[in-house]
Each structure stands twice: as structure tokens, then as C-alpha cells.
Amino acid sequence: MIHFNPQTRTFNLLLHTSYYAFQVDDQEQPVHLGWGVRPDAAAADDRLSGETVYEQYDPPWSFITQFRPDELLTFGDVTSYGVTLKASFPTLPQPLAAGEHLHLPIRDLRLRYVGYEVVTDAQPGLAPTHGLPTGVSSPRETLRVLLRDPVQPFQAIVCYRLTPEHDIIERWLELENLGRETVTLDVCHFASLHLPNGTTELTYVAGTWAREFMTARQRLPMGTQVIESRSVQTSHNSNPFFFLNQPGQAWEEGGTVYFGALAYSGSWRISFEQLPTWDIRVHGGYNPFDFHLALTPGERHITPAFVTGVSNDGWGGASRRLHAFTQERILPVSAAYPSWRPVLYNSWEATYFNLSYENQVALARKAAAIGVELFCVDDGWFGGRRHDRAGLGDWVVSQDVFPNGLEQLVAEVHRLGMKFGLWVEPEMVNPDSDLYRQHPEWVLHFPSRPRTESRNQLILDFGREEVIAYIFTLLDELVTRYAVSFFKWDMNRLATEPGSVVGQAIWRQHTAGVYSLMDRLRQKHPGLDIQSCSGGGGRIDLGILGRTDQVWVSDNTDAFDRTRIQEGFSLTYPARTMEAWVTHEHNHITQRVTPLALRFDVAMRGVLGIGASLNELSEAELQQYASYITFYKQIRPVIQGGILYRLQRVEEWGASIVQYVLPDGSQAVYSLVIHQHQVGSYRPNPPLRGLQLKANYTVTDRRGHEIHRATGYELMTLGLPRELGEFGGYSRTLHIRAVTFSSSL
Ligand code: DGJ
């Protein structure tokens, strides 16, 4: 609910358990009042009365005025700290006052309140255009607050879209040049957030290739801390989300936690500022690194969204709000799989670049026999791609690999009852390719400088419309000709030497180009699903998830490493987006040998996939795979559609326990993975969550053996019985079902 008091010009944004408020002061400046948890007993429309003018930042007191928490902070106005926007104007549209001198360019922007409106059809920048529905489509209120510069012909609309049931406010800016000269923006965040003083404990993720999503928790320093990407994809090194709370005042299941995530996959930055006053500000949006946004006369720019919120039930509550929001409002509903994601087979680790019709068809037959539903051929099927030094850019089926064409394999995959998927890396080119030989000018580079290769490849210049058109035609033909139901869309290098025909705009235009390609493909082929991959987990964020169905979280499939990676991923992203493969006993990256049960128990925590070489497995092993897949299909509605609780985290107890529970409490899945267990010690037994107190539950293992029976009350107090044989590498997945259950209990 959005409420405005015209007397004191106070805005109250009321959500399920949180509020957000600001007030326009006597200098026409919207000033932040507060953001946080509402009192427990507050009724839906309880709010700040708006009868008080809450705070005044008196201009003569310049040291105070600098800290004024403007809803939109601009360079040139009073602050000398971080800003939301910084703009340059080529001239002054009004005559100079006597005694003034013109300093060019004019680097100030002052935005003052003009008015507001509440609408229900607003969209942030780069919103999906594919036309596929989302899980929930009920209209949402957006508050649009219009600010204008009294001197320069420039305006900004500050937008707040409310999803009250998840305590989420999406923030973005709509900027417009109202003048006759080009205006340039040197800093453009999507929003700046003001958090209560002392909110200094930051949770985020850090990592690198094969070690993505490592959870990090630390105190903010005085000054500024930054997480960012300086490339045209989201990054392996960090991910655009954060949790912040007062130290010691929040934990997994309790306390007030602020959170935010950018819906953007390009060069982004989130900076956390602790001012000398201990005020906490968070600025999120385009990375100012090499940033330049030119608005020509009359041009508008709408930024993507900064998704923000408050949890009153800890880090777990923040995650659950983001999961539900992503499932209901961001993910497209796949036409092929509207309810849950299929079990996938991917041939990468089985055959790498040694593809042949024979080995793929053999894999497909075995995959179908063990219960796989979607068969994806990875890298190496096209052009001269017999290794990673050639062929990228030539998206034509290789005669060397498939002498009778790919149709033969596709027909067999379909006959076996599976859908067919293909790996592509459309943004790239190997210099050893027909495409590069024809169009060496189509890559990002600076003229007369070397073009540095990474994995032997260069990035196509998505500033060129003809490049995007060319890629669209090729991908469109692939989908049509080979009845492709699934693209694994990869991206395997960082952008360096980002010279483009559109100059610095390439940072934004690359991402916009990728989104537009995906949106157009999905619009034309509603049966096509897409998985985002960037050398593992390099392109995962709420922007790409608006046009993809699932993501590849890491190339590291070692069950131990993966437990931690998946835990960090789960902070923000839901299990139904997390593709996770069971690969070989002897892991190809870490060289560690792990039992099959552990590999399945970890992979079943998301969207189960198989990446092991089935051609090398015995009949008995294939039977075991089949039995796990059958079990997974039973529990996947709970894993992919349930609510997630992290009951125990690896770094605290050496054990990771997650529970998924259907919203009505009728079914749950309990997943335990022990990393380390010292003999003679016991880990605590966590109570389960979200069950019906009075219902009777049966707890079964993968073979359907009942191993426990208890009431919801017992499970939510004592938890599940420990087993004596728990040791490092031990794991189990249990299905918990109500035998007597009433939705009215
Ligand atoms: C990187 C991906 O993460 C892998 O799964 C695989 O698809 C390779 N690229 C193929 O080149």
C-alpha cells in the first residue's frame, strides 16, 4: 500500500512486515525517513502519521547538511559522499547572474520534487520482452516520484515497485533529457539505500572459476567497500546481492536483515558506505568504471531494477523472500515444463571435444534408460570445433562429427522420449573460424592494438546491430531445424580491450544485446528453454533469470566443494534454478573420489542432472543411477517448489542440512551432508520447520523404507534421530510425508 500525506508531504510504503518512508522537505528535497520492520501488531494501514516534519537539515550547518539522506543523491548538491547520479551539461540554459563565470562542462545536478503518481503497469529497464508469463501476474503498485532540475532541462523519476507479500521494493530511475544539448551521466546507480546506523555486518559471496559463491561475512569498514563486475557478464568473483544486519542482532532464523540484488548482468557495482556519522548507505547499479551514458535531446533512459527488501526472520527469511519473488515474479513459466525442471543429461564431461554420432547416441540411449528427460549435446558439435582453438562463431553442424547430419541424433533422442538440447556460445568467436576470417572487424578491440585472446577467443561487438541480427538468424535456424528445446548458453571469457563502434556504451549494450537475443528467441519459439552458463557461474543474477529457466552454478562438480557453492547460491537464488550434475566417481577438477550416494544427495538439492560418462558405467551402476533418478522425481515437487530452510551450515558444524517443505506442510525433504565429523562428538539435531504440528508424518529413504514416524510437533522439536554411522562423506536424503493431515489443522 502506498500512502501520501499532502500536508506534510510524507510517503508511507507499507508492506507485509516492513515499511519504507520519506518526506519532501521545505527545500523540495525528498529526504529519507526510515526503512525497516513494522511493529508486530501493526494493522495493514498503520503508518507514520505524517503530521510531523521529522527532521530538518539546516543548510547553514554544512557539516550536517552533507549527511542529509536524500532519496536521490546527486553530485553538485550538498553531499561530498557517494551519489546516485552524476551528470555533465555542456552549457547553462539561463543567462549568467552578474559576476558569475561559466565553467564548462557544468558538473552539477540538483533534483527537486515536482509531484508523484501511483501506477500499476510500470516496468524497469531491460525487463523481459519475450511475452512468456511469470508464475504470478497480479498488478503491483509503483510509486513514481518526479524530480526536476530547476536550472538544467533534466528530470528523474524515482520508482518504487512494491511486492508487499515478500517485503520487496524494486527501485529504479527513469531519466530524461528535456533540453537541446546532449547530457552525459558519469555515475548512474539504480538506487541509493539508507540503512539504520550500525547495520554493518555484510554477507555476500566471493570466489573465482570453480569456486563461485563462497559465503563471506564481515564488518563494514569506515569508508567504502565495493563488490563489482568489470566485464560484460555478472562475474565469478562476486554476485550482485548483499545482506546487511546489525552485528549479533541477526542469524539464520531471526533478526532484521536488509537485502538487495541487482537485476542486471553487465558491469555492475554495489558499494557500501559507512559515513563518519555511522550512517550506512548502499549504492547499486551500473559500474562507474569506464562508464559513460549520453542522453541526446529528448532521450530517456530507464535503469534496470535494484531489488531490495527487509526480512524480520534472519538470513533465512531474506533468502525465502528472494526465492519466492524470483519464482513468482522473475522466472518465465516454461511452456515445455511449467511445473518443474526436467532431469538433464549433459555430455561435456563424458566426451569433451571427442564427439561422434556413435558416442552421443550411445549416451542418449543409456540416459533415457535411467530416466533422463532432456539430452543436451555440449561443446564441439559445430564448425571446426574439435578443440577450443577453433570454430566458435561457425554455428553449423560439423560433417566430421555428424556425417549424416544432426537430424539422426535428434530423431533418436525424441524416439527415446527425451527433449533435445544444444550448447552454444553465441557472443564469441575463435580467430580460427570462418566468421572471423570474413569479419575481423566484428570483435571488441582497440584499433591497431593486439587483440588479446582468452581461451583462444574474442568477444563479438554487440554494439553492431548487424552482429546481433546475424547471431539471431543462426540460432533461430538451429532451433527450427533441429527442434531444439534447450540451449545451454555459455560465455567463456572476460571483456578486456572493450573497443566497440558504440564506445563506452558497449558495457550496457552487450547485456542489452544478450537479453534481446534471448527474448526474441523465446518469443518466436515458446517451447525453447535456456540455461545461463558462463564458464560455470559467471552469469547468474535476477536480470538473466528473467529470460532463462536455470543456471549452471559452477564447473566444479565435486560433492564436497559443491555443498559450499550451493549454500552460497541459495542465499539469493531458488533451488529450481540450480542445475546440478552427478559426475564421475573420480572428480575431473579436484581429483577427489566420492561415493555415489554423496554425489546424488548433493545434486538432488537443485535441478538434478547427470554429467558422468554413462558409456563407462557397469549395468549395476546404471541401475543405481536409475533408482536415484526415480527417487528424485518423487521428491522434486518439494525441492523445486518448496520453501527452503538451511538447518545447519557447513562452516558452523561441518554438516550441511537443508530442508524443503511444501507451503501447506504436507511434504518435506531433508538433506544431510556431513563434511567432517570428529569421532566421539555429536552435531546438534536441528528441529524441522514448516510442518503441521498435529499431523503424523512418515520418513522414508530413497528405497521407500520407513525409517521414522513422528508427529509434526515431534519433528519440529526433536528433529530426526541421529545415526551413529555419520562420518565425513556421509549423506542422506529423506522424504517426509504426512499420513494424517488436514489443511485446517
Ligand atoms: C564451460 C562450461 O561451464 C562447461 O560446462 C562446458 O560447457 C564448457 N564451457 C564447454 O566449452
Structural features, described:
With 745 residues, the protein is α+β, with helices and mostly antiparallel strands. It has three domains: 2-211 and 238-330, Beta-galactosidase, Chain A, domain 5 (Distorted Sandwich); 344-636, Aldolase class I (TIM Barrel, Alpha-Beta Barrel); 646-740, Golgi alpha-mannosidase II (Immunoglobulin-like, Sandwich), CATH 2.60.40.1180. It is 19% helix and 28% strand. It contains 13 helices and 36 strands. The strands form six sheets. Strands 6, 7, 8, 9, 11, 12, 14, 15, 19 and 20 form a ten-stranded antiparallel sheet that branches. Helix 4 runs parallel beside helix 5, helix 7 (465-482) packs parallel to helix 8 (506-524) and helix 9 runs parallel beside helix 10 (596-603). The longest helix is centred in the last third of the chain and has 23 residues, at 619-641. The model has no long low-confidence stretch (mean pLDDT 95). The structure holds (2R,3S,4R,5S)-2-(hydroxymethyl)piperidine-3,4,5-triol. Residues 348, 378-379, 423, 490, 492, 533, 535-536, 552, 555 line the site of (2R,3S,4R,5S)-2-(hydroxymethyl)piperidine-3,4,5-triol.
Summarize the entry for a quick read.
By secondary structure, the chain is of the alpha+beta class. It contains 13 helices and 36 strands. A hairpin with a 7-residue loop joins strand 11 and strand 12.
